[in-house]
Amino acid sequence: MNLSFFKNPRKAAWLILSIFLMGLIFFFSSQNGSDSSGLSGRFLFLLTSFLSEQQASFLIRKAAHFSIYFCLGFSINGVFLPVNFPDHSNLSDADQNKCGILQNGFQKPFLLSLAVVFLYACSDEWHQTFTDQRSGQFSDVLLDTCGGLCGILLHSILSISSLKNTKSS
């Protein structure tokens, strides 16, 4: 077994965080319908002053899906991003601008991260079909994937900003 991956503490930390988030998602998906409703019901009071209880519950549950997959996408992207990016410092400013997010060492990590998020969202919804009072919905897979995509994009943007700041100093 090749353990060279763990020689980079940053990648190891992102991997551990990603596994933790996947475990948390699995735990939440294992709750039966009434336990899951009870958990989201703790936040109802924040929204029931201007939404019906049913609307507020729906919004909280969907926001939870989006948020946890946002975090998963953000952390998974940290696992797949390369430690060293291609050096474009010898290029002119115009040519450097042509080396966008998908040409600068970000395409493969972006697609891998998105694939992991999508496949985990599919497996999560499938897992819910085995849980009492729960059902799997493809619309939740899409919502989860959108949340993950936003997390991946934010992590990529922050990485590019960090890369540009490092090269300019």
Report what the structure shows.
- With 169 residues, the protein is mostly helical.
- The chain contains 6 helices and no strands.
- It has helices at 9-30, 33-41, 53-80, 93-98, 107-128, 138-168.
- Helix 3 packs across helix 5 (107-128) and helix 3 (53-80) crosses helix 6.
- The longest helix has 31 residues, at 138-168.
- It is globular, with a radius of gyration of 19 Å.
- 24% of the residues are buried.
- The model is unreliable at 98-102 (pLDDT under 50).
**How is the biggest beta sheet arranged?**
none
Helix content: 55-70%
Strand content: under 5%
Which sequence of SSEs, written as H and E, runs from N to C? HHHHHH
Find the count of extended strands (DSSP E, 2+ residues): 0
Low-pLDDT ranges: 98-102
Q: Radius of gyration over alpha carbons?
A: 19 Å
Total count of helical runs of at least 4 residues: 6
Mean pLDDT: 82
What structural class results from the helix and strand content?
mainly alpha
Shape: globular
Distance from N terminus to C terminus (CA atoms, Å) equals: 39 Å
What's the helix and strand layout?
Blueprint: H1 9-30, H2 33-41, H3 53-80, H4 93-98, H5 107-128, H6 138-168
Helix pairs in contact: 1-3, 1-5, 3-5, 3-6, 5-6
Give a brief description.
The chain is an all-alpha fold and 169 residues long. Helix content is 70%, strand content 0%.
